[in-house]
Q: What sequence folds into this?
């Protein structure tokens, strides 16, 4: 739990995974929770399968829209290798919430130069003290919709920020289409229920 | 959008759109370009009472906005930094005529080149045209300054630039909304000495421009956007734009001179600030624009020596600069070092019709003069089939020049997208006809400005505001320009593509090949029946890996040399068939066929 009123949150993934929507929800929760917030992202080529990252900064007064290297309190990764790639942005004692998803890009396929890490989450746990691995794809499949990965991860994240649950729920409601509200709330709760146990290094 | 007084989380671009609404803007024109695109998209979506349009290019957009201004209305024109190169001609002379209704040009620069071909610093354009600019440091200022810019434009009879950067355009922050004002109630007033820039009139206007600059020099000393923040420090920082935020985060206790109006600079106020401090450092991204001007005025400041001129700044980079300058004692270095990692560059989508064109060009091994759009990804490994990319529309002229000096034996092909061709390729093609070039021009017509998110253009049949529009017939257009051989190509047909490019290259005189498959993402997502790999037939030759399709991956099965066999993600495959066409063992087959053969086996 981030106990103070400030948090630097970095959300990473691959184009099309829903990184930007997640950062939108988190930012609005912070604003609705009465804090200042800024978020920044680069999304020029995001639809073409490149890396997408979004910085969300929360606090009583936020200046820079981007987080300094090494200053991330909470990392939320939609893809495990992207989680590992972002490690250097984190404080050692930060929390990394990582989906077990792995997406291997074409450039690595059949390449002798580039390698996709064997155990990205394990590698990350050697660097960061608190890594939480989330079987987000599996939970989403159980709920019958792969797009829910997003909300599941937000549910996990909510355990580490001190905003009351109803702000999360109300904000989610305002961001998803009516017919998906129920299932998103369920996905959020499934995320909240994910064990916060650390991955052992 | 919501009501006055409400606080909303808006990106800089959305805030500019809101500002245009509050300022009573009547017309907005633009050509898409990251990071500026969402300004007009937001206007069209949320403020349809304002007339907004995509123009074929930035020059036309600027001219349309000038027309609206001369017609008496407040007008907005937005573009990415390099867009102003295209629009520089009307911009420079409009600086002479001045406005009717207020006109603001929003220039969105891209330090770090997140989505651009250069990182030019457009603050110089303000100085070059002697046009004032305001530089917001967050979304709230983007909205407020836009409104002020309209007032300034009308008071001083000048276009005004709002200078944004990617971090301002694409960062969201809390913004308090305001009321809409109606804008001035003006109409067109015939005034030839003001608007007809023949030399005799322009000489008089140049005098007006100089007078105006003098008035602006007083104004910039008064405006609250140029302000001092005193914290009792003997270190003073002069900064503006997003750099201000980085500095405040790193060193909230220094004294600040926050520049909100960056041209002309308030030298009087700055001089006082410099005199009142022991050390003064200028922090700005890219060029030493402020620093050099302050130096030229005769004052001593430091800056670029520590911050550098490359890429974006960040809180961390600013901290390192402060440390190096001796302004702070230590910088908290990241605790975790970064490592070498596989790259994840953007790639052509599964099913992208551009892929077929580049597979054929790669096979033929010709020199390819390229252009800017999604298809620029044809340069990336393993396609590796593009040899130049300078600016929008450059491919055809580049190909003509290459061919003129090298002779046509080597063969030069120009590759250009439909939106880019309309933007600035037509005149290049006319040059090819006029000067008897032997180039082969491929227009990759996917009926979208795909790179920037699928905006409409004169070839799509729709306008920005969603109305039906005439659709330019590229085939007839090329014929009308005098190209004798214009042919259409289905870029999903690999053999046909190779054959057609070969034939057209052999033909004397310029020729045009127009590919006809639409973008797979826009306006509707195309998903035909997917293909799968039959592992028994796949021999692991990796031919399909070399077409760079994100849907094709290495499987865990290997051939006798230990090379991986292929596997297709059938949720990504759009059924374009290109991989199946080049598979030497016919191992890539329609999913439904595969299931059938599995059953019969
Ligand atoms: C002068 C200028 N304006 C705008 C841009 C931004 N931009 C880059 S490519 C492009 C258009 C691409 O559309 P098209 O040529 O149809 O190719 P596609 O992406 O659809 O393949 C735009 C608007 C730019 N780089 N330069």
A:
């Amino acid at each position: 739990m981030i106990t103070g009123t400030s948090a630097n949150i970095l959300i990473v993934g691959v184009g099309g995974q829903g990184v930007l929507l997640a950062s939108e929800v988190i930012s609005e929760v912070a604003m609705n929770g009465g804090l200042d917030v800024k978020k920044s992202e680069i999304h020029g080529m995001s639809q073409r399968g490149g890396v997408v990252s979004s910085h969300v900064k929360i606090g009583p007064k936020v200046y820079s829209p981007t987080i300094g290297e090494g200053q991330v309190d909470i990392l939320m990764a939609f893809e495990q290798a992207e989680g590992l790639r972002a490690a250097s942005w984190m404080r050692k004692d930060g929390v990394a919430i990582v989906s077990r998803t792995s997406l291997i890009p074409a450039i690595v396929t059949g390449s002798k130069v580039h390698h996709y890490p064997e155990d990205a989450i394990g590698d990350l746990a050697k660097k960061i003290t608190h890594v939480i691995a989330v079987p987000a794809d599996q939970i989403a499949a159980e709920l019958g919709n792969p797009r829910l990965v997003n909300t599941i991860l937000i549910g996990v994240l909510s355990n580490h920020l001190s905003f009351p649950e109803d702000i999360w729920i109300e904000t989610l409601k305002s961001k998803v289409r009516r017919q998906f509200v129920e299932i998103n709330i369920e996905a959020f709760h499934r995320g909240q229920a994910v064990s916060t146990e650390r991955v052992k290094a | 959008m919501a009501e006055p007084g409400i606080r909303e989380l808006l990106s800089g671009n959305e805030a500019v759109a809101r500002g245009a609404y509050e300022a009573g803007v009547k017309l907005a024109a633009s050509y898409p370009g990251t990071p500026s695109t969402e300004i007009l998209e937001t206007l069209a979506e949320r403020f349809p009472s304002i007339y907004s349009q995509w123009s074929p290019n930035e020059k036309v957009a600027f001219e349309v906005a000038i027309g609206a201004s001369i017609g008496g209305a407040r007008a907005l024109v937005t573009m990415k930094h390099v867009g102003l190169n295209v629009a520089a001609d009307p911009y420079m002379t409009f600086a002479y005529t001045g406005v009717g209704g207020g006109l603001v040009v929003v220039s969105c620069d891209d330090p770090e080149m997140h989505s651009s071909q250069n990182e030019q610093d457009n603050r110089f354009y303000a100085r070059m045209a002697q046009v004032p600019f305001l530089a917001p440091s967050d979304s709230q200022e983007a909205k407020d300054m836009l409104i002020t810019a309209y007032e300034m434009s009308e008071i001083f009879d000048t276009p005004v630039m709002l200078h944004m950067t990617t971090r301002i355009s694409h960062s969201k922050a809390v913004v308090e909304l305001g009321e809409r004002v109606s804008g001035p109630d003006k109409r067109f007033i015939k005034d030839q000495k003001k608007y007809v820039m023949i030399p005799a009139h322009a000489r008089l206007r140049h005098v007006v421009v100089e007078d105006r600059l003098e008035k602006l020099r007083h104004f910039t000393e008064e405006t609250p956007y140029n302000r001092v923040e005193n914290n009792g420090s003997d270190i003073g920082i002069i900064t503006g734009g997003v750099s201000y935020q980085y500095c405040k985060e790193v060193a909230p206790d220094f004294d600040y001179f926050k520049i909100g109006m960056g041209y002309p600079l308030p030298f009087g106020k700055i001089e006082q600030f410099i005199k009142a401090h022991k050390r003064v450092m200028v922090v700005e991204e890219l060029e030493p624009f402020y620093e050099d001007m302050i130096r030229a005025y005769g004052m001593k400041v430091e800056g670029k020596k520590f911050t550098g001129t490359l890429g974006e700044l960040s809180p961390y980079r600013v901290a390192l600069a402060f440390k190096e300058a001796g302004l702070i004692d230590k910088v908290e270095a990241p605790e975790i070092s970064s490592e070498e990692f596989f790259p994840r560059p953007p790639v052509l989508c599964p099913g992208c019709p551009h892929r077929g064109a580049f597979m054929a060009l790669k096979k033929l091994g010709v020199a390819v003069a390229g252009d800017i759009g999604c298809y620029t990804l044809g340069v990336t490994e393993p396609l590796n089939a593009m040899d130049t990319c300078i600016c929008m529309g450059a491919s055809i002229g580049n190909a003509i020049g290459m061919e003129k000096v090298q002779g046509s034996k080597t063969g030069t092909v120009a590759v250009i997208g439909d939106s880019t061709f309309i933007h600035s390729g037509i005149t290049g093609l006319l040059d090819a006809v006029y000067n008897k070039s032997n180039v082969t021009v491929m227009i990759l017509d996917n009926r979208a400005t795909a790179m920037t998110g699928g905006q409409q253009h004169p070839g799509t049949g729709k306008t920005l505001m969603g109305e039906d529009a005439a659709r330019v017939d590229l085939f007839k257009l090329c014929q009308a320009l005098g190209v004798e051989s214009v042919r259409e190509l289905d870029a999903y047909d690999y053999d046909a593509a190779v054959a057609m490019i070969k034939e057209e290259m052999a033909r004397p005189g310029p020729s045009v090949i127009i590919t006809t498959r639409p973008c797979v993402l826009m306006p509707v997502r195309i998903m035909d029946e997917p293909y799968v790999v039959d592992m028994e037939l796949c021999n692991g030759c990796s031919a399909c890996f070399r077409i760079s399709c994100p849907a094709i991956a290495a499987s865990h099965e290997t051939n006798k040399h230990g090379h991986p066999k292929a596997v297709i993600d059938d949720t990504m495959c759009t059924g374009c068939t290109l991989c199946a066409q080049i598979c030497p063992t016919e191992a890539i087959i329609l999913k439904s066929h595969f299931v059938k053969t599995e059953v019969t086996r």
Summary: Residues 227-333 of chain B form a domain with the Rossmann fold fold (CATH 3.40.50.920). Chain B touches chain A through 57 residues (CB under 8 Å). The pocket of thiamine diphosphate is lined by residues B 31-33, 58, 80, 82-83, 86, 372-375, 392, 417-420, 444, 446, 448-452 (CB under 6 Å). The radius of gyration of chain B is 27 Å.
